[in-house]
Amino acid sequence: MTSDLVQASWTRIDAWLREHAPRTFATLRPPAGDEEIVVAQQELGVTFPPHLVASLLRHNGALEGPEAFRFSSGDRLLGVSGILGDTGFMRGIGQGIDGEAECYWLHGYVKFGSYDVTSDGLLVDCRTGRDSFGAIGRFFDETGTSFGQADSLGEYLAAEADQLERGQDAGIVTFNGRLFREAPLPARPKYSADEPLPAPDEQLPELDLSYSPTDLLHVSYLDGHEELGALIATLPYERVVEAARKQLRRLAVETGLNHYPEVKAALDAWERGAAPPQPDQTGPLALRLRTVLAQADTGRDRTRRWAAEQIALGIWGSPYRSVCESANMRSHFTLDWRADLHADLGHPSLPPIPDDRFWAALRNPVIDSSWYAAQYTQDQD
Fold first, then answer.
1. N or C, where is the chain less crowded by C-beta within 10 Å?
2. How many CB atoms neighbour CB 231 within 10 A?
3. What is the per-residue pLDDT across 68-107, written as a single tens digit (0 to 9) for each?
4. Beta partners for 125?
5. Which residues is 178 bridged to in the sheet?
6. CATH-assigned architecture of domain 4-181
7. How far apart are CA 53 and CA 31, in angstroms?
8. Mean pLDDT lowest for which of 32-36, 80-84, 300-304?
9. Within a 10 A sphere around the Cβ of 192, how many other Cβ atoms?
10. CATH 3.40.1580.10 placement within the chain
Protein backbone atom coordinates (compact mmCIF):
# COMPACT_ATOMS: atom_id res chain seq x y z
CA MET A 1 0.00 0.00 0.00
CA THR A 2 2.24 2.80 -1.26
CA SER A 3 1.60 6.48 -0.65
CA ASP A 4 1.98 7.54 -4.30
CA LEU A 5 -1.77 7.70 -4.89
CA VAL A 6 -2.23 9.86 -1.78
CA GLN A 7 0.44 12.31 -2.91
CA ALA A 8 -0.86 12.45 -6.47
CA SER A 9 -4.44 12.97 -5.30
CA TRP A 10 -3.54 15.74 -2.86
CA THR A 11 -1.51 17.41 -5.61
CA ARG A 12 -4.61 17.47 -7.80
CA ILE A 13 -6.86 18.65 -4.96
CA ASP A 14 -4.42 21.37 -3.90
CA ALA A 15 -3.99 22.63 -7.46
CA TRP A 16 -7.73 22.81 -8.05
CA LEU A 17 -8.44 24.57 -4.77
CA ARG A 18 -5.56 27.00 -5.21
CA GLU A 19 -7.00 28.10 -8.56
CA HIS A 20 -10.75 27.96 -7.94
CA ALA A 21 -11.28 28.20 -4.16
CA PRO A 22 -8.23 29.88 -2.59
CA ARG A 23 -10.00 30.68 0.68
CA THR A 24 -10.87 27.02 1.15
CA PHE A 25 -7.34 26.01 0.16
CA ALA A 26 -5.96 28.34 2.83
CA THR A 27 -7.68 26.29 5.54
CA LEU A 28 -5.57 23.21 4.77
CA ARG A 29 -2.83 23.06 7.38
CA PRO A 30 0.86 22.32 6.81
CA PRO A 31 2.19 18.78 7.25
CA ALA A 32 2.21 17.03 10.60
CA GLY A 33 5.54 16.01 12.10
CA ASP A 34 6.75 12.41 11.96
CA GLU A 35 7.12 12.22 15.72
CA GLU A 36 3.65 13.68 16.25
CA ILE A 37 2.17 10.91 14.12
CA VAL A 38 4.13 8.20 15.94
CA VAL A 39 3.00 9.49 19.33
CA ALA A 40 -0.63 9.58 18.18
CA GLN A 41 -0.48 5.92 17.14
CA GLN A 42 1.03 4.99 20.49
CA GLU A 43 -1.62 6.94 22.37
CA LEU A 44 -4.45 5.28 20.45
CA GLY A 45 -2.77 1.87 20.48
CA VAL A 46 -3.17 1.36 16.73
CA THR A 47 -1.09 1.38 13.57
CA PHE A 48 -2.11 4.01 11.05
CA PRO A 49 -2.37 2.68 7.49
CA PRO A 50 0.39 4.12 5.27
CA HIS A 51 -2.14 6.21 3.35
CA LEU A 52 -3.29 7.99 6.51
CA VAL A 53 0.31 8.69 7.47
CA ALA A 54 1.02 10.02 3.97
CA SER A 55 -2.04 12.26 4.10
CA LEU A 56 -1.04 13.70 7.48
CA LEU A 57 2.43 14.36 6.10
CA ARG A 58 0.72 16.42 3.40
CA HIS A 59 -1.93 18.25 5.43
CA ASN A 60 -2.35 18.10 9.19
CA GLY A 61 -6.09 18.66 8.92
CA ALA A 62 -8.11 21.73 8.00
CA LEU A 63 -8.93 24.72 10.15
CA GLU A 64 -12.44 24.90 11.56
CA GLY A 65 -15.01 27.40 10.30
CA PRO A 66 -17.36 27.99 7.37
CA GLU A 67 -14.49 28.19 4.88
CA ALA A 68 -12.97 24.85 5.92
CA PHE A 69 -12.06 22.19 3.40
CA ARG A 70 -14.61 19.41 3.61
CA PHE A 71 -14.92 16.14 1.76
CA SER A 72 -17.97 15.39 -0.36
CA SER A 73 -19.43 13.70 2.72
CA GLY A 74 -19.49 17.10 4.44
CA ASP A 75 -16.72 16.09 6.83
CA ARG A 76 -13.80 18.38 7.65
CA LEU A 77 -10.31 16.90 7.33
CA LEU A 78 -8.89 16.24 10.81
CA GLY A 79 -5.28 16.65 11.83
CA VAL A 80 -3.44 14.64 14.47
CA SER A 81 -4.98 16.45 17.44
CA GLY A 82 -8.46 16.16 15.95
CA ILE A 83 -7.95 12.47 15.25
CA LEU A 84 -6.94 11.89 18.86
CA GLY A 85 -9.83 13.91 20.26
CA ASP A 86 -12.58 12.58 18.01
CA THR A 87 -11.42 8.96 18.11
CA GLY A 88 -11.14 9.10 21.89
CA PHE A 89 -14.65 10.49 22.10
CA MET A 90 -16.01 7.77 19.82
CA ARG A 91 -14.41 5.09 21.95
CA GLY A 92 -16.24 6.54 24.91
CA ILE A 93 -19.68 6.29 23.31
CA GLY A 94 -19.14 3.24 21.11
CA GLN A 95 -19.27 0.60 23.82
CA GLY A 96 -22.71 -0.86 24.33
CA ILE A 97 -23.76 -3.17 27.16
CA ASP A 98 -22.72 -6.13 25.03
CA GLY A 99 -19.28 -4.72 24.22
CA GLU A 100 -18.06 -3.69 20.79
CA ALA A 101 -20.35 -3.96 17.80
CA GLU A 102 -18.72 -3.88 14.37
CA CYS A 103 -21.64 -2.02 12.87
CA TYR A 104 -21.26 0.79 15.40
CA TRP A 105 -17.70 1.56 16.54
CA LEU A 106 -14.64 -0.60 17.18
CA HIS A 107 -11.43 0.17 19.06
CA GLY A 108 -9.49 -0.21 15.81
CA TYR A 109 -11.40 2.51 13.99
CA VAL A 110 -9.75 5.93 13.68
CA LYS A 111 -11.75 8.99 12.73
CA PHE A 112 -10.07 11.36 10.26
CA GLY A 113 -13.02 13.44 9.05
CA SER A 114 -15.55 15.24 11.24
CA TYR A 115 -18.99 16.61 10.47
CA ASP A 116 -18.34 18.89 13.48
CA VAL A 117 -21.94 19.59 14.53
CA THR A 118 -22.55 15.90 15.28
CA SER A 119 -20.35 12.88 15.97
CA ASP A 120 -20.71 11.76 12.33
CA GLY A 121 -17.57 11.48 10.24
CA LEU A 122 -15.17 9.52 8.08
CA LEU A 123 -13.01 6.78 9.57
CA VAL A 124 -10.28 4.37 8.57
CA ASP A 125 -10.01 0.76 9.72
CA CYS A 126 -6.70 0.39 11.56
CA ARG A 127 -7.06 -3.28 12.50
CA THR A 128 -3.88 -4.84 11.17
CA GLY A 129 -3.88 -8.35 9.76
CA ARG A 130 -7.32 -7.95 8.21
CA ASP A 131 -8.28 -7.48 4.58
CA SER A 132 -10.18 -4.38 5.69
CA PHE A 133 -7.03 -2.67 7.01
CA GLY A 134 -7.01 0.84 5.54
CA ALA A 135 -10.61 0.71 4.30
CA ILE A 136 -12.63 3.92 4.52
CA GLY A 137 -15.99 3.98 6.26
CA ARG A 138 -18.33 6.55 7.69
CA PHE A 139 -19.97 6.78 11.07
CA PHE A 140 -23.54 8.07 11.36
CA ASP A 141 -24.72 8.56 14.92
CA GLU A 142 -28.16 7.07 14.31
CA THR A 143 -27.07 3.89 12.55
CA GLY A 144 -23.38 3.38 13.31
CA THR A 145 -20.53 2.56 10.94
CA SER A 146 -20.81 1.54 7.31
CA PHE A 147 -18.06 0.76 4.84
CA GLY A 148 -17.92 0.87 1.06
CA GLN A 149 -16.57 4.41 0.72
CA ALA A 150 -13.21 3.20 -0.65
CA ASP A 151 -10.67 0.43 -0.04
CA SER A 152 -8.01 2.98 0.92
CA LEU A 153 -7.62 6.65 1.70
CA GLY A 154 -5.69 7.08 -1.54
CA GLU A 155 -8.67 5.80 -3.53
CA TYR A 156 -10.99 8.07 -1.57
CA LEU A 157 -8.82 11.12 -2.21
CA ALA A 158 -8.55 10.25 -5.90
CA ALA A 159 -12.34 10.15 -6.15
CA GLU A 160 -12.51 13.53 -4.40
CA ALA A 161 -10.05 14.97 -6.92
CA ASP A 162 -12.09 13.52 -9.78
CA GLN A 163 -15.21 15.20 -8.43
CA LEU A 164 -13.55 18.60 -8.11
CA GLU A 165 -12.23 18.41 -11.66
CA ARG A 166 -15.69 17.54 -13.01
CA GLY A 167 -16.95 20.86 -11.68
CA GLN A 168 -20.64 21.67 -11.80
CA ASP A 169 -21.46 18.32 -13.39
CA ALA A 170 -20.56 16.89 -9.98
CA GLY A 171 -22.30 19.66 -8.01
CA ILE A 172 -19.07 21.58 -7.42
CA VAL A 173 -19.59 25.32 -6.99
CA THR A 174 -17.23 28.10 -5.99
CA PHE A 175 -18.18 31.52 -4.71
CA ASN A 176 -16.08 34.23 -3.12
CA GLY A 177 -13.06 31.94 -3.11
CA ARG A 178 -14.89 29.17 -1.26
CA LEU A 179 -15.83 25.62 -2.21
CA PHE A 180 -19.45 24.49 -2.02
CA ARG A 181 -20.90 21.10 -2.86
CA GLU A 182 -24.49 21.10 -4.03
CA ALA A 183 -26.94 18.27 -4.54
CA PRO A 184 -27.81 17.39 -8.15
CA LEU A 185 -30.62 19.52 -9.52
CA PRO A 186 -33.79 17.47 -10.04
CA ALA A 187 -35.66 17.41 -13.32
CA ARG A 188 -38.67 19.69 -13.17
CA PRO A 189 -42.09 18.81 -14.64
CA LYS A 190 -43.48 20.97 -17.44
CA TYR A 191 -46.74 22.87 -17.04
CA SER A 192 -48.91 24.54 -19.63
CA ALA A 193 -49.45 28.29 -19.34
CA ASP A 194 -52.52 28.26 -21.59
CA GLU A 195 -55.15 27.52 -18.96
CA PRO A 196 -57.83 30.22 -18.66
CA LEU A 197 -58.33 31.91 -15.32
CA PRO A 198 -60.89 30.15 -13.13
CA ALA A 199 -64.03 31.89 -11.96
CA PRO A 200 -63.62 33.95 -8.78
CA ASP A 201 -65.94 31.61 -6.88
CA GLU A 202 -64.11 28.40 -7.86
CA GLN A 203 -62.87 26.36 -4.92
CA LEU A 204 -59.11 26.91 -4.80
CA PRO A 205 -56.48 27.02 -2.05
CA GLU A 206 -56.27 30.37 -0.32
CA LEU A 207 -53.18 32.49 -0.94
CA ASP A 208 -51.45 34.12 2.01
CA LEU A 209 -52.03 37.82 1.41
CA SER A 210 -51.09 39.01 4.89
CA TYR A 211 -47.70 40.28 3.71
CA SER A 212 -46.68 43.92 3.93
CA PRO A 213 -43.62 45.69 2.50
CA THR A 214 -42.93 47.02 6.00
CA ASP A 215 -42.88 43.60 7.69
CA LEU A 216 -40.00 43.23 10.13
CA LEU A 217 -37.53 40.58 9.00
CA HIS A 218 -36.02 38.25 11.58
CA VAL A 219 -32.27 38.02 11.22
CA SER A 220 -32.47 34.22 10.84
CA TYR A 221 -33.53 34.76 7.21
CA LEU A 222 -30.17 36.45 6.58
CA ASP A 223 -27.81 34.49 8.81
CA GLY A 224 -27.86 31.38 6.63
CA HIS A 225 -26.71 33.39 3.62
CA GLU A 226 -23.44 34.20 5.40
CA GLU A 227 -21.57 37.05 3.67
CA LEU A 228 -24.46 37.62 1.26
CA GLY A 229 -26.79 37.95 4.23
CA ALA A 230 -24.49 40.54 5.79
CA LEU A 231 -24.44 42.39 2.48
CA ILE A 232 -28.24 42.44 2.21
CA ALA A 233 -28.49 43.72 5.79
CA THR A 234 -26.18 46.66 5.15
CA LEU A 235 -27.05 47.77 1.61
CA PRO A 236 -29.35 50.74 0.99
CA TYR A 237 -33.04 49.85 0.93
CA GLU A 238 -33.40 50.77 -2.75
CA ARG A 239 -30.64 48.34 -3.71
CA VAL A 240 -32.38 45.53 -1.85
CA VAL A 241 -35.69 46.33 -3.57
CA GLU A 242 -33.99 46.17 -6.96
CA ALA A 243 -32.34 42.85 -6.11
CA ALA A 244 -35.65 41.44 -4.87
CA ARG A 245 -37.28 42.37 -8.18
CA LYS A 246 -34.51 40.77 -10.23
CA GLN A 247 -34.47 37.62 -8.11
CA LEU A 248 -38.23 37.26 -8.40
CA ARG A 249 -38.07 37.58 -12.18
CA ARG A 250 -35.35 34.93 -12.34
CA LEU A 251 -37.48 32.63 -10.19
CA ALA A 252 -40.58 33.21 -12.31
CA VAL A 253 -38.65 32.37 -15.49
CA GLU A 254 -37.03 29.27 -14.00
CA THR A 255 -40.32 27.90 -12.69
CA GLY A 256 -42.33 28.73 -15.82
CA LEU A 257 -44.59 31.10 -13.88
CA ASN A 258 -43.40 33.99 -16.03
CA HIS A 259 -45.37 32.45 -18.92
CA TYR A 260 -48.62 33.31 -17.18
CA PRO A 261 -49.71 36.77 -18.37
CA GLU A 262 -50.92 37.75 -14.90
CA VAL A 263 -47.52 37.02 -13.34
CA LYS A 264 -45.56 38.61 -16.16
CA ALA A 265 -47.73 41.73 -16.10
CA ALA A 266 -47.23 42.17 -12.35
CA LEU A 267 -43.46 41.83 -12.66
CA ASP A 268 -43.36 44.13 -15.69
CA ALA A 269 -45.32 46.74 -13.74
CA TRP A 270 -42.89 46.44 -10.82
CA GLU A 271 -39.98 47.05 -13.19
CA ARG A 272 -41.70 50.21 -14.44
CA GLY A 273 -42.14 51.43 -10.88
CA ALA A 274 -45.92 51.00 -10.88
CA ALA A 275 -47.76 50.06 -7.71
CA PRO A 276 -48.64 46.37 -7.35
CA PRO A 277 -52.26 45.25 -7.69
CA GLN A 278 -54.30 45.17 -4.53
CA PRO A 279 -53.95 41.89 -2.59
CA ASP A 280 -57.32 40.36 -3.39
CA GLN A 281 -58.03 36.61 -3.47
CA THR A 282 -60.26 37.10 -6.53
CA GLY A 283 -57.91 39.43 -8.43
CA PRO A 284 -56.30 38.10 -11.64
CA LEU A 285 -52.82 37.62 -10.16
CA ALA A 286 -54.07 35.97 -6.98
CA LEU A 287 -56.43 33.73 -8.94
CA ARG A 288 -53.57 32.61 -11.16
CA LEU A 289 -51.33 31.88 -8.21
CA ARG A 290 -54.13 30.03 -6.42
CA THR A 291 -54.59 27.91 -9.55
CA VAL A 292 -50.89 27.08 -9.46
CA LEU A 293 -51.25 26.10 -5.80
CA ALA A 294 -54.06 23.71 -6.73
CA GLN A 295 -52.02 22.18 -9.56
CA ALA A 296 -49.00 21.81 -7.30
CA ASP A 297 -51.07 20.13 -4.60
CA THR A 298 -52.53 17.70 -7.13
CA GLY A 299 -49.09 16.88 -8.51
CA ARG A 300 -47.48 16.89 -5.05
CA ASP A 301 -45.02 19.45 -6.37
CA ARG A 302 -43.94 21.32 -3.26
CA THR A 303 -41.34 23.35 -5.13
CA ARG A 304 -43.94 24.78 -7.51
CA ARG A 305 -46.22 25.58 -4.58
CA TRP A 306 -43.38 27.39 -2.82
CA ALA A 307 -42.61 29.30 -6.03
CA ALA A 308 -46.20 30.54 -6.31
CA GLU A 309 -46.15 31.58 -2.66
CA GLN A 310 -42.85 33.33 -3.28
CA ILE A 311 -44.35 35.36 -6.13
CA ALA A 312 -47.05 36.58 -3.74
CA LEU A 313 -44.45 37.42 -1.09
CA GLY A 314 -42.32 39.26 -3.64
CA ILE A 315 -45.18 41.35 -4.99
CA TRP A 316 -46.83 42.23 -1.69
CA GLY A 317 -44.27 41.60 1.05
CA SER A 318 -40.94 42.72 2.47
CA PRO A 319 -38.19 43.04 -0.16
CA TYR A 320 -35.69 41.82 2.43
CA ARG A 321 -37.58 38.61 3.04
CA SER A 322 -38.35 38.27 -0.65
CA VAL A 323 -34.73 38.48 -1.77
CA CYS A 324 -33.70 35.89 0.84
CA GLU A 325 -36.46 33.43 0.08
CA SER A 326 -36.15 33.84 -3.70
CA ALA A 327 -32.48 32.94 -3.38
CA ASN A 328 -33.37 29.90 -1.29
CA MET A 329 -35.92 28.81 -3.86
CA ARG A 330 -33.54 29.34 -6.74
CA SER A 331 -31.05 26.93 -5.19
CA HIS A 332 -33.46 24.22 -6.40
CA PHE A 333 -33.04 25.40 -10.00
CA THR A 334 -29.47 26.62 -10.48
CA LEU A 335 -26.06 25.99 -8.96
CA ASP A 336 -25.13 29.63 -9.56
CA TRP A 337 -27.74 31.14 -7.26
CA ARG A 338 -25.11 32.76 -5.01
CA ALA A 339 -23.34 34.47 -7.91
CA ASP A 340 -26.70 35.56 -9.35
CA LEU A 341 -27.75 37.05 -6.03
CA HIS A 342 -24.45 38.90 -5.71
CA ALA A 343 -24.88 40.28 -9.24
CA ASP A 344 -28.47 41.36 -8.54
CA LEU A 345 -27.27 43.19 -5.43
CA GLY A 346 -24.96 45.23 -7.66
CA HIS A 347 -21.82 43.09 -7.29
CA PRO A 348 -20.31 45.16 -4.44
CA SER A 349 -17.39 43.98 -2.34
CA LEU A 350 -18.45 41.21 -0.01
CA PRO A 351 -18.07 41.64 3.76
CA PRO A 352 -16.57 38.92 5.95
CA ILE A 353 -18.78 36.03 6.97
CA PRO A 354 -20.80 37.55 9.83
CA ASP A 355 -20.52 36.33 13.39
CA ASP A 356 -22.83 36.89 16.35
CA ARG A 357 -21.12 40.17 17.13
CA PHE A 358 -21.93 41.49 13.64
CA TRP A 359 -25.63 40.72 14.04
CA ALA A 360 -25.64 42.11 17.58
CA ALA A 361 -24.24 45.42 16.33
CA LEU A 362 -26.55 45.63 13.31
CA ARG A 363 -28.78 48.70 13.31
CA ASN A 364 -31.28 48.25 10.51
CA PRO A 365 -34.83 49.21 11.53
CA VAL A 366 -36.44 46.62 9.24
CA ILE A 367 -34.35 43.70 10.58
CA ASP A 368 -34.94 42.17 14.00
CA SER A 369 -31.55 41.25 15.45
CA SER A 370 -32.59 41.80 19.05
CA TRP A 371 -31.81 38.22 20.09
CA TYR A 372 -28.18 38.59 19.07
CA ALA A 373 -27.97 42.00 20.72
CA ALA A 374 -29.32 40.57 23.96
CA GLN A 375 -27.00 37.56 23.85
CA TYR A 376 -23.95 39.70 23.18
CA THR A 377 -24.89 42.05 26.01
CA GLN A 378 -25.19 39.08 28.39
CA ASP A 379 -21.81 37.75 27.28
CA GLN A 380 -20.23 41.11 28.09
CA ASP A 381 -21.71 41.24 31.60
1. C
2. 23
3. 999 999 999 999 999 999 999 999 885 544 455 566 899 9
4. 109
5. 175
6. 3-Layer(aba) Sandwich (3.40)
7. 10
8. 300-304
9. 8
10. 4-181
